[in-house]
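Last lecture ended with a question: if I hand you only a sequence, what can you say about the shape of the protein? Today we answer it with a concrete record. The protein is Fatty acid cistrans isomerase. Below, first the input exactly as provided, then the predicted structure, then a couple of comments.
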Amino acid sequence: MHPDARTLGLIRHSRVPLTIAFAVLLLASPLRAAEPRDTAREMPASASSESVVSETPHYSTQVQPIFDRRCIACHGCLGSPCNVKLDSFPGVDRGGFGQNPYSTRLTADPRTDMDAADSTAQWRERGFYPILARTASAQSNLDDSILYRMIDAGMRHNVPGFSRASVDPFRLQRFAGTCPSTADALAARLQEHPGLGMPFGLPALAEEDFAILRDWIARGSPGPTEAEEANARRLANPTAVAAWEAFFNSSDPRQALVSRFIFEHVFLATIVLEDSPGDRFRLVRSSTPPASLLDEGRGGRSAEDAPIELISTALPYGDPGVERVWYRLEKLTAAPVQKSLFVWRLAPTDIARLSELFLSPDWAADADLDPPWDIGNPFRIFAAIPAESRYRFLLENAAVIVGGITYGPVCNGQIATYAVKDQFWVFFLDPAYDISVRDPSLGLDDWDLFMDRSLVGNAAYLDAYAKTRARLDPEGWSLDAIWDGDGENRNAWLTLLRHETNVSVLRGAQGGMPQTFWLMGYSGLERLYYDTVASFEYWAGDARKLETLLFFNMLRQEFEDGFLGLLPREERERIRHQWTRGIGSVALSLIPFETVDQPTRIEVRGPDPLIDLVEQIARHLGPRISGLPDRLNPRVKPEVAVDAPIEDFDDWESAVSMLTALQGQPFVPQLPSVLVLRLNRAEGPPQDRHRVYSLVANRVYKSQYTLVFQNGQALPDEDTLSVYPTLVNGFPNLFIDLDLADAGRFLTDLRAVENKDDWNRFASRYGVLRDSARFWPFYDWINRWNDEHRGDAAGWLDLSYYDAPEI
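The predicted structure:
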C-alpha cells in the first residue's frame, strides 16, 4: 500500500519469497511513445552523427510527450528504476542514482524526492549521475548518453515477438542490485544482457519517437525555453487561485493553525479547482506571500506574479525556518501517474464551508495558536482546534485522507500492503458518538500515548479508549453511531482493495460482500494517517519502516475490533479468529480486544450475523451513500444460465456476475491481481461501442501478521473475483481486448482454468502480451479512455507488473 501505502514504502510481493524486505525497482522498466504503429518494424542500426537532423526537437512539444507516453509508466515516481524520473525536465536532467536506496539497510539514505534539492548541481553532490551527455560532438552525445544507449538497445532487441522469458529473471530482480553510472559500464551490461534495453520487457519505441529522442540527445538535450516554462505555469483562472490563497493566509489569528492542519493532511493530494479548469495544484508552504497580500489590498497583480519560494522539509510538520509560513497553491505541470494520483476537488463554495467548519465554533480562550514544529503528534499540535471540526474535515474528505495512505509518491512498497486484507469496507463513527470527539484526551494526562507505537503504549491507549466509551456510552452503540454522510457524502462508506504491492480506495460499497470490515473514529483515523503518511520516512532504515508496519497492523486490528463491537457479544471472538488464523492467532493475544465486552444496541437476525448487520447498515445509510445494489457483484445471483447467449453489454454483465463474489472457484487463485478488459461490439454509436471493466482477484490469507512466508498463509479456496465497470488501480497486470461475440467462450474458458499452465494458455489466447505488436496501441487507447471518462482523476497507467512472471 502506500505508505507509499506513502505507501509505507514497505510492501512485499505475495507470489515471490521475500529475500529483501525493503526496496524498489532496479534498472528495468518501460518507456512510452507517441502513436506507435500496430505492426512490427525493422530496428535501425545505431545512429551516427550523420543521421542526426540539424533542427533540435522541442523539449516541451516533442520530447516530454514521448516520456509521458512511454517512460513515466515506471519512471514517474520515487524509487523508479535507478531513480531516473522522467516526468519533467528537472528529473531528466537530474539523472540516476547508482545504488538502490530502498534495498535492505540499517541506516537512512538521503531523500530523493524532487523537492530535496534545488538544482542539478545539488543532485550531483548527492550522488546522482547524468544520463545525458552534452559536448560539442553529436556522436559523443549519443555514445556517452545512458538514456540513448538504453533506448537504442531496445530498438535493436525489443522487436514485437521478442522472448518474454529471456528478461523474466531481471524482472524478478528489480528490487535489488545496482545501476551502471557510466555509458561504458552500461554497455558492458547490455553486451551481456541485451534484453535490458528500454522500454524494458516491452515493444520498442516507434521509429519516429526514437528519431526525436536521438536527435534531441545528439543536439545536447536542451530543456524547455523560458517562454515554454512560463506558458506551462499559466493559470486558467488566477482569480480562483487568489481566492483560495487569501483563505489559507487570512488575518484571523486562528487561520494559520487551521491551514497548517489542512496542509499536513492533504500535502500529497492533487488539488483541482472547479473554477480553474484544466489546472492541477498541490498545497505547499512558501516563504513568499500571495500577490494579493503582497500588495496589501491595492490590487493590480495576479496570482501568477508572486513566485513561490518552496519550503521543503523532510516531513510536512518540519520546522520551516522562517518567521511566517505562507500557504500557496503551486500548479503542477508534470503529467500525472495513476499510481500516486488522488484528487481533492474544491468548489468556490468550499471556502465558506471550511471557514464555517473551523472558525465558527468557539475556541478555548487559552488555546495555543502557535505550537512548536517538528512534532508528529496531531493531538497535541492541533489541540486548540475543536476536535469535532478536525474530525468532520477528515470525514467529509475521507477518500482524500485515506488516499494519502493508499497512494503516494513511492513507486511500490515491499511489505506494507500485507498489513491489510485484499478487500474490506470502511465505516466511520458519527461525531456525535465518537469518544475522541466528546472527550478528546480520553482521560489521559498528555497526548504522547496517542502516538506511542509500542505494544505497551497501544494497549494503554486502547484501555483508555474503552474506559471512556464505557463511561460515556454504557449501553453501547446503535446504528445511529455510524456516520451516514449527512445523507449526501459518499465518503461515509469506502471500499479498500489490496493488489499485491499497492492499494486502491473507492467510494461506496463496491466489489461484493468482503470478508472483513473496519469502524474508525477520529483518534484512530488520525493515528493511522500520521503513522503511515505524515510521519512516514521513505528514506529511513529498515528498523523505522518495520516500526511503521507493526503499528499499522495494530491499528488494523483496532478497526476490525471496533466493527466487531457492533455484533452480539457471543459472536465476536469467533469471527475475530475467523478473520485472523494460523500464526496470526498468536498476535491476537498481544493486542487487547477492547470491544469484546462492549454492549451493543443492534439486534441481528438470521444465520449469518455479519450479513444481517451489513444489510442493516446499508439500509441506515441508504443507496445514495452505499451505491447498492451492485449489479456486477451481487450476493443474490440473477436467474441466468451459465451458457446463456451474450448479445449485448447487459447480457455480459449478467453473465459475469455469476462468477463474482463467490468462493471456491479454481480459476480465481490463478488470476493476476488486476485484469483490464475492453469489451467491443460492432454496432451502435461510436461512443458506445466499447466498455471497460476491471477484473480484480481478492486473495485471502490466514493472517496479515506474517511478513515472510506469505504463500504459506494463503487460502486460495476462499479467494473471490470482483468486477468493476471502470478502471480500478494504476497497476494493470494484463490487458484483454474482447469482442462481444467471443464473450461467452471467454467466460467458459476462464471457468476451465485450474492451474498455472491453464492460465498461461488462457492469457496467450485472450491477453495483450507484452511482446505483442498490439501492446502500445492498446495502452494508448486505454489511457485515452481513462482521460476521457475520468477526467482529473486520470493518470498514466503503471507497467511495472504488466504480464510479469511473478504475478
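Comments.
1. The radius of gyration is 27 Å.
2. The chain has four domains: 49-226, 231-357, 410-588, 649-793.
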